[in-house]
Structures are given as C-alpha cells and as structure tokens.
Design brief:
The protein has 19 helices and 20 strands. With about 500 residues, the protein is an alpha/beta fold. β1 and β2 form a beta hairpin. The N terminus is likely disordered.
Length: about 500
Amino acid sequence: MSKVYWTGSRYTVVVSSPAKIGTTRVLIADDEENQRNGLSNMISGWGFTTETAADGQEALDRLPGFAPHVLLTDLMMPRVDGYELLRRLKSSGSRIPAIVITAFGNIETALSTTHDLGAYWFLEKPIQASVLRLLLERATAQSLLSEETERLQRQLSYQGVLGDLVGNSEAMQEVFSLVRQVAPSKAAVLIIGESGTGKELVARAIHRLSPRHAGPFVAINCAAMPETLMESELFGHEKGAFTGAVERRAGCFELAQDGTLLLDEVAEMPVGTQAKLLRVLEDSRVRRLGGKTENVVDVRVIAATNRIPEEAIRKGLLREDLFYRLNVFGLHLPPLRQRLDDIPFLCEAMLQDLNRKHGCRISGVDNTLLLRLQNHTWPGNVRELRNVLERAAILAGSGVLGQQHLQQGFGGNMSGQRSPVVSMAASMAASTEAGSEGITIPVGSTVAQAEKSLILLTLAHTKNNKTRAAELLGISLKTLFNKLKEYGSSDSET
C-alpha cells in the first residue's frame, strides 16, 4: 500500500497507486436516497469500499466502526447537517479528508467549508464523475500518508521513547507495552511508583494514545490540596455554597469532560472525599457543592500514588472499595535505581530539552560523569536526575558536561564508587566502633524495614536534627516527615 524511505534527513512516505487501493473506505452522507445510492455504486465501481448515511448524525455513528479514509458529504441534511458534521470532526481532531457536495454552492460557501471547517474540497451538483474520482484518489493518498506517518511514529516509539517517557531498559519497555495496551480502552488505571518516577508522564502518554486525545487532560494533586477545598476542586460549587464562593465554578470532572482526569497522590485524599469520589466513578454523575441537580460526565480517570496500596488500605488512608474501582488496570513504574541503564538515554533527551529551555549548547555527558551518574542511588528518581543536569547545564553553558559541573558532594566518594546510602552505612558502622548504637538488618528483611531502620538510626546520629538527617539520607525534609508519619513517630510533627 505504501513504502517508507529514509532520505538522510527525514522519512518520505510513497503511497501506492490509487487504482490498486481496493480496501480504502469512503463514507457517503446524503439525505437523498437515490443520490447516495448512485454515488455508492459509482465509487464502488472504482475499487473503493463504501458505506452510506442519511444525515450527519448517522455518519458520526458509523465513523468508529467503519473508519473511512475519505468522507463525502452533502451540506443540507436533517438532524445534523454537513456544516455541523465538519465542525464536530474538526473539534475532535479527526484527520479524515472531507469532500463536500451541494446543490446550493457559491464562493462564500466554498471558502467557509474548505478553509474554516477544514474540508478537503468542494463540489457543486451535478457532479462530474472524472473530477470526483480524481479528488477521491488524492484525498485517499493524503489519508494513507497520515496513517503511515502515525504508524511510523509508533514504530519509532519502540526504540526507547514514548511521548515524554524515555527508556530502553526491559522494565521501561514493559511499561511502554502496557501503556499501548491500555490506552485505547476506557478502563481506569492506577499508576504506582515512587515520587519523581514520572507517573504524570505515563498518564499523559495514555491520554495521547487514547481516542480521547483531542479532549482535555486535567491533573489534580491530592496531596497539595487543602481538605476544605478538595471537594470544590473535584466536583465544583454553586455561588453561595460556602463562604468565599462568590461565583459558580466547574470542578475537575466537568473540566475534563470527554478527556482524562489524573488524580495524583490519590491516597492522600481525605477518606470522606474518597467516598464521594467512588459514587461519581460508579454512576458518572457529579453534583456541585450547593447544587440541586446532577451533571452527567464522560471522563476517563487515571489515579497515581507513591504509596504501596495495601499498606495505605491497612493504615486507613485509602478506601479498599475505591482501590478496587481504580485498579482496573494497575501499572507499576520502576524507580530509577532499578533501570540505571536508561540514564544515557535520559541524559540525551533531557539535555535537548534543557538546551531549548535555557539557550545552552550542551553536546553531551563525558564517560566519567556518566559513570558517576550510574553509580548514584537516585532517591529523587528521574526528577532528581533532571535537576542535577539542569544545574550542570546552566553552569557549563556549552560543550560536554563533566564531573566539575556537579554540585560539591554529589554521589559520595567516587574512589570506591559507593552510593550515598552505602557510604552512610559505612560511616555509621565506624561510629558504632566508637561506642554508638549500630544498625542490624536480619537477612530476609524487606526494603521498607531496612529503610525505616536507616532513617531512625540517622536521626539518632544527628541528635534528632531532621534537616541534617534529610541531607545525609539524600531525601527532602518533607519526605522525611512523611516517612516518620508512616512509622507513627511523634517526631513527625513540624
């Protein structure tokens, strides 16, 4: 049907002769039965597969199942006319070339339909068969070119890039595969991963590859939203619903209509709000705060959390029924320390973006620095890597990044190529020899148990100086407080 050639600077797609197309599909929308049947018979005789619709609404209903390469439509039709049909196709982001036919043609109508509404061409009745056939062949070639380009982009995404996600490791290729599988569906998705691993990027990739890609993508961070405002942000409110509600406001569900809503850090949402959220997910109806009526919403929900769901449920932070409602399709995003082989690819992609952002001319990372980066434990994951590269790029301005561009103290002692956690453990072992309390982690302990022991010992080592402890552990102060809160420590209060 088509071939792809690499010309040295770009891909060129050559579409085969329309006479050999055969399987290309044309949808004909016309309210006059004799007209549409006559067109169908004639176009089928040229080797196209056709389907007909009596008006614009029927054409819209047939689009998903028939997937036409070209749309041939009248303008004056009942229910949904040709103008409205083209408007809806344009607003949905459809790339189907549309050839408009009408008995009421003039220059203004032609300009309106071909330019304002994005029609491919305009024909007046009676139609000349030779002209129509030529237009169909050209429009088909354009449609096939678009299909081939999208296919090529999907093929290229298998080489380590999917949207804004980057990774050639087995773990990330598994993530890419799951994203491609779940994106076309309507299923709710729960993305689980540590902070900084790119959960929102995964959600955006699912949205872009879904049939809802032309709709809005709305994200709300449940951890950053005060409890008093959470319900208003999610469901909206009417004027006067509460003090300060001076006007009606739509919530995130209404703003994401026909698109995707990301509930980031959903386990941080108040339990009472979780119950109301569950109701919305079950019946797809939203009632604004202070409202008397319910609005039907069509929204795909993706949730994300940096917590282990089972632990969050056990601690009463996440409703079990909400978890099962969101976890229709679970997707685990691996931390950067489990895919260190992806760091060269991440560096290349990030530096290209940072060059554009800051006007730098960084050409790459030298091998010594790359080794240093691959021996770091990355507690902040991909977000931390970007921050490190951004600082280094600004400092260097141009050329190749080296170790001299890193912040002092980054990554611990390189002579032994030890991670900060290992170096810290060694220093603590040394302090134990001097009489301080040591740390013992029995074989078979979980990572969470080892992490807890290390955090508590570090606090003891710093005499409960949380700021210093967070620095030694390589985590933010907020993360330290969250961990202490998980452990039920009285030191979790600021």
